[in-house]
Design a protein that fits this description.
nine-stranded parallel beta sheet; globular; alpha/beta; 41% helix
Length: 329
């Protein structure tokens, strides 16, 4: 490992100066195949602690619209062209949405979001979801509301904001250099347009992606840089779950060592963002999870995901509390 380079990148990141993709990639290439990752992870952990604080930020989601998506994203079980057997419905029941909200409040989960399949949710349906959000903010004002509803326009985003949504999620998914190999039915420009409009109506931005889809380490670092440049305050980090029936069903699983290193290096490239575990982390060992939570990751999605099971919320909250009470020095 190039310890001089690591020290320089850590020093800059501690002051809020992002590492360049070139430098972060060079650091990765300097690490031997069997070399201990502890110096890298410890450095990333110190940056996360200085720039973001000791609290592990939490969120939860509900699959508010499922299946029948018109897009051809190769990783996704909900694309209409993929035959995965996922559930299909237009609206989650309001009582189910409100139960999830109540669970967040009881467990101390800070954020709660509806996530919808499809290229975008039309305005007539936005009004239905907005009414649910309006009820949610009345019932549990302490839980912050988020939304992920595709490539919306300004009017649609404004309707969600007026209903209490204060953070909008729109993943870039992967680096610009790799995205066209994974999706052809919409572009990065489409995503960035919606991201910019969400910021204009006053929402915070949650912009992340999926690793393990065949991209390089450099492209993961490019994703972190591109999310930062888009103005994101939160970067959800998903691990690919190869789902039968999707074009990536045979994609080899990314090893834990590379997952741990990816998160740490992304922290150096994006020192001020909340980098949070999202989909796929249930396959990691507790050891790897704890190493990441002291090695650059400072947030997590808890509970079930969209079409797959998540981690136990009770076990998660116990682990988070233990780590928050013993932050890396």
């Amino acid at each position: 490992m190039d310890f001089e380079l690591l020290k320089r990148l850590e020093s800059g990141a501690l002051e809020g100066v992002p590492a360049s993709v070139d430098d972060a990639e060079a650091l990765w290439l300097s690490i031997g195949d069997d070399e201990d990752l502890a110096p890298l992870c410890d450095a990333a952990g110190r940056v996360a602690l200085r720039r973001c604080g000791p609290e592990i930020q939490t969120c939860s989601i509900i699959n508010a619209r499922s299946g029948r998506c018109t897009e051809d994203c190769k990783w996704c079980s909900q694309a209409g062209t993929h035959h995965t057997g996922c559930r299909e419905y237009d609206f989650c029941p309001e009582d189910e949405f409100l139960r999830g909200l109540h669970d967040c409040a009881v467990r101390g989960v800070q954020r709660y979001s509806m996530v919808c399949s499809g290229r975008k949710v039309p305005m007539k349906d936005i009004r239905v979801f907005a009414a649910m959000y309006d009820e949610a903010r009345r019932r549990e004002p302490g839980v912050r509301l988020c939304a992920s509803m595709g490539l919306l326009n300004r009017e649609e985003l404004q309707a969600l904001y007026d209903a209490g949504v204060r953070r909008y999620h729109c993943n870039l998914e992967t680096a610009e250099s790799y995205f066209p190999t994974l999706c052809t039915t919409h572009t990065r420009a489409d995503k960035l347009r919606t991201i910019a409009m969400a910021a204009e109506v006053g929402m915070e931005l949650c912009v992340g992606g999926i690793i393990g889809m065949g991209e390089t380490m450099r492209q993961r670092l490019e994703l972190a840089r591109e999310a930062r440049q888009a103005g994101a305050v939160s970067l959800p980090l998903n691990l690919l779950i190869p789902i039968p029936g999707t074009p990536l069903e045979s994609q080899p699983i990314l090893g834990e060592r590379e997952v741990v290193a990816s998160a740490a290096l992304m922290r150096l490239v994006a020192p001020d963002m909340s980098i949070r575990f999202a989909g796929g982390r249930a396959r990691l060992s507790r050891e790897a999870t704890e190493r990441m939570l002291t090695g650059g990751v400072n947030g997590a999605m808890v509970g079930d995901l969209l079409t797959t099971r998540g981690n136990s919320p009770e076990e998660d909250m116990e682990m988070f509390a233990s780590i928050e009470n013993n932050p890396i020095a």
